[in-house]
Amino acid sequence: MTIHDTVNEILVNLFREILVVEENAIITGEFEDITVNDMHIIEAVGLEGRNMSAIAKSLGITVGSLTTSMNGLVKKGYVLRERSEEDRRVVMISLTEKGERAYTQHKTFHDEMTEAVIASLDEKEIPTLTNVLQGLIKFFREYHPGK
Question: Helix/strand/coil (H, E, C) string of the chain?
Fold first, then answer.
């Protein structure tokens, strides 16, 4: 097996495992009525709340796409939607108590994952891991097949 094949296999398995483990860790009990995608929207709203445009931009999606998901989260009691008093065109989103609990559960999962990775490394390996992960982010941000 070449280094190319080994790295490819590791990346494919890593992404698959992250999706499965994250779903099993956070879409449980009280939060069985939402998806991992919904949980990432809740994360993007944050504890302070944000407007729809800022949330859509941080997720890399259109406001129209976000609206569909946000409607479901409003109906399920995770978020509140209000028009800005200063500018009625701006729609502000904030988390309900249930949304805050979901946010906290998701954050806890990510904190535990990060701590486990860091704990498995020698202090000298951390900069290398950081560089590799930043390289992956750069690749995904710049990858535009067919363009």
Answer: CCHHHHHHHHHHHHHHHHHHHHHHHHCCHHHCCCCHHHHHHHHHHCCCCEEHHHHHHHHCCCHHHHHHHHHHHHHCCCEEEEECCCCCCCEEEEECHHHHHHHHHHHHHHHHHHHHHHHCCCHHHHHHHHHHHHHHHHHHHHCCCCC
Q: Where are the domains of the chain?
A: 3-142
> Looking at domain 3-142, which CATH architecture does it have?
Orthogonal Bundle (1.10)
Angstrom distances, CA of residue 50 to CA of 62, 70, 108: 15, 13, 21
Max Cα-Cα span within the chain? 61
Among 117, 110, 112, CA closest to 133: 117
Q: Which tens digits make up the pLDDT trace of 89-141?
A: 889 999 999 999 999 999 999 999 999 999 999 999 999 999 999 999 999 88
pLDDT tens digit sequence for 49-74: 999 999 999 999 999 999 999 999 99
